[in-house]
Write a structure and sequence with these properties.
- It is built from 11 helices and 7 strands.
- Strands 3-4-5 form a 3-stranded antiparallel β-sheet. Strands 1-2 form a two-stranded antiparallel ribbon.
- The N terminus is likely disordered.
Length: about 300
Amino acid sequence: MKQTFFLIILITISQISFSQISRNDYIQRYQILAIEEMARSGVPASITMAQGCLESGNGNSELSRKSNNHFGIKCKKSWKGKKVYYDDDAKNECFRKYKTVEDSYIDHSNFLLDNPRYASLFKLKTTDYKGWAHGLKKAGYATNRSYAHLLIDIIEANKLYRLDYKISYDELASFEQKQMGSEGISNSLSINAFQSHEIIKRNRVKSVVARKGDTYEIIAQELGLKEWVLYKYNDQSAGYRPRENEIVYIKPKKNKTKKDKLTHRVETGDSMHYISQFYGIKLSPLYRRNQIKKGQQPKVGQIIYLHKRGEG
């Protein structure tokens, strides 16, 4: 009987340990929320992410698990929502309880926006994570004397400053820090926290239209896909970033178009990849069908066959 009892305890401990979220997993899970909130509120995504890691113990604290409170925000007089009580700086303190983690992230941004003591922080650039970290400590967000340095350490150890440039944590492309406003760096995030990309069909293939600031990983995470499949479906190499209004296929393209469109006459600027994306057909068979070597481009006025020659 005792052996059974101890076995149950060991199994329980093992399950608890197994369910712990790693910092890497936590960042992967909630990074898009942090980026979306930066676009909406102006709070740097790196700061939001670092605070979430620190305040929630990477999502493992009792407050975050049971109440979805990932930022340790206390009730205050203005809070009208649900409440829970924990011992913190004082005994039996009141903390906010949220229906979802998303609600916690949104309320965190609102908490900083609506509180006059944090107003000076919004004069800083969203890329100035050090200024934000020290400003939060100075404004009294936490009592820990090392709070600013703890945030900065998390940001730098995990390269979270990339989030402030709309580049997600696990992006495959090499990252070179640039000033906001530099070529290739978007000044506004296209993701709407409350509205996903609209799925449309081209040549019977599901696709979305890229917004300003999108990456394949951002789109993949929103739609529950792996980013590598988007590189494959769109005939792009790892690290490619779609341009605004570019078609991004989320399912494999077809080998040919429908019979109502058999050919394409090349216009100035048309590449084989452009034709492939425009009609929703795979690039490799398009090269083979038109006897064009991979990497070569068609001439203006050339007829490109979208089916096998003679079909239709």
